Task: inverse folding
């Protein structure tokens, strides 16, 4: 009997532990997410924390089957800290640690007032796709107007290993300096290892839609916001108490109130051992001081200024000409890269190996550049060393001012290069020139290492590596002043030792040619999927009206024999391809619809029952008519388009497998419903004989239903 009781207790304990663990994956509106939200509500009830439920079923132009929970805890100060915890997951994020942190905060301060008022926002539709994203934060902000200062911390943290990454930038917005520094110190004081990409607040402060994060709606409303993610790690540990320590330290620091504003134009230096911040005021002072010293230096050297300027103006035509040829060589290098990728049947190689691609592009460009300007000695080019160093100073000064006008913090890279270019220009010693030449592009090199290696960024890598017009123009602007310094160094030696110029040029050309050849061989031989599986996209499109089932199989690399089976049936896919289009035998067993109607006065109530055999990730419904239609009623939100001839019905992500749509139209309305179901992954089971590929399957099902009065 004792054994039986012990076994029951053990089973109950295991069940409780299972319920306490967040369910994953939890796509928006799925049964797993609704179950997790129910679990969170139960835990808040146990802790006796007041909360409200925010539903998204009656919105004007959006709909979601998910909902959110908003827990509010009154603090000693009316100033409020909002903790945003995403509940829904994506393929890349599961936010499990963020949920446990949010619950632990509610439990700790359920009965004891914290130093600041707290709002823990368990957001149920934070990763939705569409025009209104993130939906839960946008809806929350429509009714959130605090009278006292408020700050926001978004906890998008997966399984935690004690290593965090702070993301202060979203589009063109940035976290104020006080909030970033305070959380950086608070996390580190609790034992967290915190990473902060130093180039991020400078480079990524442009309003690129792909660079907008979950913090964007909060930034748009003017709230001081910081997004916290975790760095990848193979080891995990329980960090709930560590986060409570961090939170307590932060709130104690601002127990008298949160700042209502802060510096958003600052420079971050993060070399791995710690972060150093240069506020806007100090940086502006450094910028003005540098401009003053350069002007003073120019005036002190007034006796030679007339001769130098006259000589420089006589050859100034070389600056735009040299820049044009540099841009042309970059375009040519890009074409060579694309040809190499086509040659090895791997056009997306740059995406998987950005650093070797950048090295090859730079090497090819410099080989062509030096061949043109140094090898063809009869070109009418200046051989005066000072002309090129003056030109480098002129170009860097223009770039510094232009960058400061666009984004003040971004000008730091050019200001740093300008200072060392001045030192390069002034010193006559060859060793110091080499040192200053190496230090001038230091922060550009660090940014390249972060973008192409440490924190790969697909947007910037694509722009720099294969975007011919815009990317090569920006790349030319970055390279040009340093090539001018190289010209200056070369012709300084030429003036001292002219007889060895041919030999030095040949050595230089042999070096760049050999390096380019070695990098070409590396790119042709390098296999980024040697230790990992290559992606294989399996995209199936089914039309229920025409009874067609089309399949497109694609991969970035060639396959030999796939030996594929679909739901146990063998599928013959042509070998030695990167892409194949196939027509499959039609099996319309994924979606079933049943339409009924009921006349009421001069109206017709249409009822459509939709059953899917598998979980659809998205459902789009359009009502198309020849004439304008009037929708008297619909159980889902809708929007009239195209002069009321089209009605867009908002269903939401992950709809239930048994869905009822009801709408009331005029009795003489002639229209049709267009339904598009997206399944990701596909409910069809795809199997391959080879383990070389990782299958990413999708299925789109289209159906058209006529509404006949």
Result:
């Amino acid at each position: 009997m004792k054994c039986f009781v012990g076994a029951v207790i053990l089973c109950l304990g295991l069940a409780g532990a299972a319920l306490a663990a967040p369910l994953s994956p939890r796509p928006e509106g799925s049964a797993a997410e609704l179950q997790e939200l129910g679990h969170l509500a139960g835990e808040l009830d146990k802790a006796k924390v007041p909360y409200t439920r925010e539903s998204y079923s009656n919105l004007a132009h959006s709909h979601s089957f998910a909902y959110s929970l908003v827990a509010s805890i009154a603090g000693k100060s009316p100033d409020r800290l909002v903790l945003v915890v995403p509940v829904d997951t994506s393929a890349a994020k599961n936010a499990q640690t963020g949920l446990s942190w949010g619950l632990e905060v509610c439990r700790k301060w359920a009965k004891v007032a914290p130093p600041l008022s707290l709002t823990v926002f368990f957001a149920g539709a934070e990763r939705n796709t569409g025009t209104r994203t993130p939906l839960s934060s946008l809806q929350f902000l429509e009714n959130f107007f605090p009278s006292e200062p408020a700050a926001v911390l978004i906890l998008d943290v997966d399984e935690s290993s004690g290593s965090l990454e702070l993301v202060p930038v979203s589009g063109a917005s940035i976290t104020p300096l006080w909030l970033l520094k305070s959380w950086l110190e608070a996390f580190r004081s609790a034992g967290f290892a915190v990473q902060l990409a130093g180039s991020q607040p400078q480079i990524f402060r442009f309003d690129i839609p792909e660079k907008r994060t979950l913090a964007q709606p909060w930034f748009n409303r003017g709230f001081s916001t910081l997004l916290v993610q975790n760095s990848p790690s193979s080891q995990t540990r329980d960090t709930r108490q560590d986060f409570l320590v961090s939170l307590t330290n932060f709130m104690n620091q601002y127990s008298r109130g949160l700042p209502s504003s802060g510096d958003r134009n600052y420079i971050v230096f993060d070399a791995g051992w710690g972060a150093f911040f240069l506020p806007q005021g100090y940086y502006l002072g450094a910028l003005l001081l540098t401009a003053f010293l350069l002007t003073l230096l120019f005036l002190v050297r007034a006796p030679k200024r007339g001769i130098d300027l006259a000589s420089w103006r006589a050859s100034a035509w070389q600056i735009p000409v040299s820049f044009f040829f540099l841009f042309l060589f970059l375009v040519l290098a890009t074409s060579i890269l694309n040809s190499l990728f086509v040659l090895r049947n791997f056009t997306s190689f740059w995406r998987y190996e950005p650093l070797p691609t950048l090295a090859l592009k730079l090497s090819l460009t410099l080989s062509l550049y030096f061949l043109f300007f140094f090898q063809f000695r009869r070109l009418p080019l200046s051989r005066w060393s000072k002309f090129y160093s003056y030109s480098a100073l002129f170009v860097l000064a223009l770039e510094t001012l232009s960058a400061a006008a666009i984004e003040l913090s971004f000008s730091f890279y050019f200001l740093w290069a300008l200072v060392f270019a001045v030192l390069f220009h002034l010193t006559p010693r060859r060793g110091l020139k080499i040192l200053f030449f190496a230090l001038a592009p230091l922060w550009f090199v660090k940014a390249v290492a972060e973008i192409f290696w440490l924190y790969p960024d697909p947007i910037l890598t694509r722009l720099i590596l294969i975007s011919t017009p815009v990317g090569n123009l920006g790349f030319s602007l970055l390279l040009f002043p340093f090539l001018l310094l190289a010209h200056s160094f070369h012709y300084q030696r030429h003036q001292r030792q002219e007889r060895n110029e041919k030999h030095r040029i040949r050595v230089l050309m042999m070096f760049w040619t050999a390096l380019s050849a070695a990098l070409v061989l590396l790119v042709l031989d390098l296999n980024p999927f040697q230790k990992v599986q290559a992606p294989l996209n399996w995209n199936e499109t089914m039309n229920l009206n025409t009874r067609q089932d089309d399949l497109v199989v694609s991969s970035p690399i060639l396959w030999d024999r796939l030996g594929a089976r679909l739901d146990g049936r063998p599928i013959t896919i042509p070998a030695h391809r990167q892409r194949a289009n196939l027509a499959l035998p039609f099996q319309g067993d994924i979606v079933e619809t049943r339409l009924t109607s009921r006349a009421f006065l001069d109206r017709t109530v249409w009822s459509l029952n939709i059953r899917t055999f598998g979980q659809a990730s998205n459902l789009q419904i359009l009502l198309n008519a020849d004439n304008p239609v009037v929708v008297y009623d619909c159980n889902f939100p809708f929007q009239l388009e195209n002069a009321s001839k089209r009605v867009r019905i908002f269903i939401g992500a992950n709809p239930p497998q048994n869905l009822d749509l009801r709408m009331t139209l005029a009795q003489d309305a002639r229209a049709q419903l267009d339904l598009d179901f997206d399944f990701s992954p596909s409910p069809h089971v795809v199997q391959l004989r080879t383990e070389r590929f990782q299958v990413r399957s999708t299925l789109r099902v289209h159906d058209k239903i006529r509404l006949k009065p």
